[in-house]
Amino acid sequence: MTVEQARTSMVVADKVTRVFGRGDGAVKALSEISFTAEQGTITALRGRSGSGKTTLLNIIGALDRPSEGRLLLQGEDLTVLSEKQRNQLRRQRIGLIFQSYALMPLMSAYENVEFGLRIAGIASSQTRRMAEEALEQVGMKERMKHRPGELSGGEQQRVAIARAIAHHPVLLLADEPTAELDSKTGRSVIRLFRELVDRLGMTIIMTTHDLSVLSMMDQTIALEDGHIGKANEE
Ligand SMILES: Nc1ncnc2c1ncn2[C@@H]1O[C@H](COP(=O)(O)OP(=O)(O)OP(=O)(O)O)[C@@H](O)[C@H]1O
For the ABC transporter domain, which residue ranges apply (predicted)? Predict the structure, then answer.
């Protein structure tokens, strides 16, 4: 990796190691993981349960810090930032999608997205326009008055995606975004990801167990027990 590459890539993981606990009880969840994700691409982190996917995603999303190694976002080393700086960076530049959607059941789709923007500190004069725009981008504007319980799993996931992209992040991180969906709906979520990449220039990193979506990725990083797996060499 040249210095120039490190500066221009969206994400650079440089020998990222994460150890939980100390002494005899210590667990090495990640061991010297290095990879690069370029702007405008979709990367899958795949591997069995316990292989370290979520731990790595949390470090990329500045929710956690490596024990050793560096994580660069747009050339900036996240590992040297204070917690306050990391929170601010996450609010401005990163969108997060969780497996279980994490939508508020008593709020409509629109209110869920708008609430997310308010929490992110967006001025109230802007939140309506930004929430509607995000719901439009995921094809949910017509159904935005519905509550999550009145929507299908695929539609709920679209609302969760709208909430994650409404503040215009450069990087979208998704933990098992297709796990709760049937394979057809799962593929349509990945097609939506592709549109976000092509139309908005977003960069997406997602974890998955789902082999059927891997052909739709630009890059797959296989993890095995916290190491980069042999599958990457195939
Ligand atoms: N906070 C923690 N404290 C201690 N050990 C942890 C912690 N978080 C993760 N681990 C351990 O680190 C390893 C990797 O876990 P991780 O959740 O990253 O795997 P994963 O590939 O995302 O699994 P899954 O697909 O089940 O979510 C596991 O052995 C796990 O038990």
Answer: 11-234
